[in-house]
Amino acid sequence: MSTIREKIKKFPQKPGVYFFLESHKKILYIGKATSLKSRVMSYFSDDIIEKRSPLISEMVDKTKTVDYRETDSVLEALLLEASLIKSYKPYYNTEGKDDKSFNYVVITNETYPRVLVVRGRELYQKFASEDIKHLFGPFVQTGLFKEAIKLIRKIFPYYDTKQPVEKMLKGSGKIRIDFNRQIGLYPSALTSKRDYARTIRHLRMFFDGKKKQLLSQLKKEMKEYVKSEEFEKAGEIKRRIFALTHIQDVSLLKEEFRKLGGNITGRTFRIEAYDVSHMQGKDTVGVMTVVESGQIKQDGYRKFKIKSYTGANDVAGLREILERRLAHPEWPLPMLFVVDGGKAQINAAKKVLLDAGVKIPIVGVVKDEYHRPKEIIGNAALRIKYEKDILLANAEAHRFAIAYHRKKRDSIR
User: Fold this and answer.
1) How far is 339 from 347, CA to CA, in rounded Å?
2) What is the C-alpha radius of gyration for the chain, rounded to an integer number of angstroms?
3) How far apart are CA 175 and CA 197, in angstroms?
4) pLDDT (tens digit, 9 = 90+) per residue, 292-333?
5) Quick check: 238 and 232 in contact, CB under 8 A?
6) How far is CA 403 from CA 216, 337, 376, in A?
7) Is the dihedral of CA 97, 101, 103, 105 positive or negative?
8) For residues 294 and 14, what is the distance between their CA atoms, to the nearest angstrom?
9) What is the DSSP string of 84-139?
10) Model confidence over 103-137: pLDDT tens digits?
């Protein structure tokens, strides 16, 4: 057991899927983690019997070694877990559990395939085997799965009508389809049957855990659209690539946080704060600062020389900074954006994030006439829980912006 603990100490504090293995590498159990090291180590505490079920305690006793597969996000870990459980059917994942209550994702075998969430008990009551083109699951954690589906749908808009889409388009159901198109749930009216089939193919690859191959395919398709001067379609593919390389786990982490009683160990909460500085509209600059779980992270600070306009316009400056920041997929995205200002700044930031396909909460720090924090506006739960971190990040942004502006101004003189 001590050998296993030593091995776990080398596990990363990152999302992924873990495996409990018996002798001859037989898989006993497969699980998902927001932090592999913390999650797996929790099974090997002295009070395992009190904390876990007798069945899990028995599994730990049989375990000869543990292994893991790291993923880029909690969402991908959730999908990989379901895929692997389906393939290997480990004893301790299935023993004593009624898979009829689990969730499955069905892609129908239709001209316009629908993507439907179905309970195991209803699966073959509602569908004949020939009506199912692809089947994914089981997904055992209902709350987490629902949040995951919301994230997936933002990347791959799909149809989930009660009847086949062809029938809906011919009747009054078209009104419902048009409405859901307007709010981004269904494909846009410009999407052809061929383009929709391509989206379903992308979705299937993602569910199969083939993100790297999917990204390669998307880049190839984007180049094809540019070459044929279909720039709107190329832009849509570009947004999809961005969303896949910046998968936002905020809602999944909140659900995991709730499920674990409010304690996610080993997971940092990253905040990015932004500020603009100028002297009567001259030498305008902007900055980004980073705070992770209450600690300043100066290696994540960034400077921006404003290029898109001249004069005093803090909102336009913020817009440019965020657009340029989001052009760097190699920088890790935060769980919360903090802007210096009120509703105008928040709305500008929301528009930039929306255009980029990024779904991250934003709060604004409103100042009084002496530039002291007066109130925090925006997401209520986050601004209350992380008030100190928000104010720290904002204060650092203000300090860093002034220092950068002075340095730039002095260098011109």
Assistant:
1) 10
2) 24
3) 22
4) 988 999 999 999 988 776 666 789 889 999 988 887 767 888
5) no
6) 42, 21, 24
7) positive
8) 19
9) HHHHH--HHHHTT--GGGSEEEEEESSSS-BEEEEEGGGHHHH--GGGEEEEEEEE
10) 899 999 999 999 999 988 888 788 888 999 999 98
> Cβ-count burial of 79 within 10 angstroms (0-12 exposed, 13-18 middle, 19+ buried)?
buried
pLDDT (mean) for 367-392 = 89
Length of the chain: 413
Q: Considering only CA atoms, which of 274, 258, 265 is closest in space to residue 381?
A: 258
What CATH number belongs to 270-412? 3.30.420.340
Indicate if the pLDDT at residue 165 is higher than 80.
Answer: yes
From 34-43, 46-55, 389-398, the region with the lowest mean pLDDT: 46-55
Residue 49 confidence (pLDDT) above 60: no
Task: Compute CA distances 7 → 21, 26, 34, 64, 264, whole Å.
Answer: 13, 18, 18, 12, 21
Domain boundaries, the chain: 2-75+82-88, 99-250, 270-412
**DSSP secondary structure of 330-348:** TSPP-SEEEEESSHHHHHH
Domain 2-75+82-88, architecture per CATH? 3-Layer(aba) Sandwich (3.40)
- CA 80 from centroid of its chain's CA atoms: 15
Q: Where are the alpha helices (DSSP H) in 228-270?
A: 231-245, 250-259
* Coil, strand or helix at 288: strand
Q: Which residues contact 178 (CB under 8 A, 6 or more apart)?
A: 189
- Asked if residues 283 and 405 have their Cβ atoms less than 8 Å apart, the reply is yes
Which residues fall within 8 angstroms of residue 86, CB to CB, at 6 or more apart? Answer: 136, 137, 138
Token output for 7: 């091995």
- Identify whether the C-beta of residue 75 lies closer than 8 Å to the C-beta of residue 249: yes
Closest CA to 101 of 89, 78, 118: 118
Q: What is the DSSP letter of 42?
A: G
91 is written with which tokens? 């004893």
Nearest to 296 by CA among 412, 175, 411, 391: 391
Terminal Cα-to-Cα distance of the chain (whole angstroms): 67
